Amino acid sequence: MDTTLPETALILVAIVPNQRDFNIARLLGWYRIPLKSAPKVISVDYLALYQTAAFDRGNRWHIAYVAPVIGHELTTRRELLQEEPDHPRAHEEYFKIQLGSLQRLPKPIPAKKWRRITFFYTTGRHFSEAQNLNELVVHDEERDILWRSLRERALKANEYKAEQLPEVPVDPAILELLGFMRKN
Question: Which domain holds residue 110?
Answer without folding.
Answer: 10-177
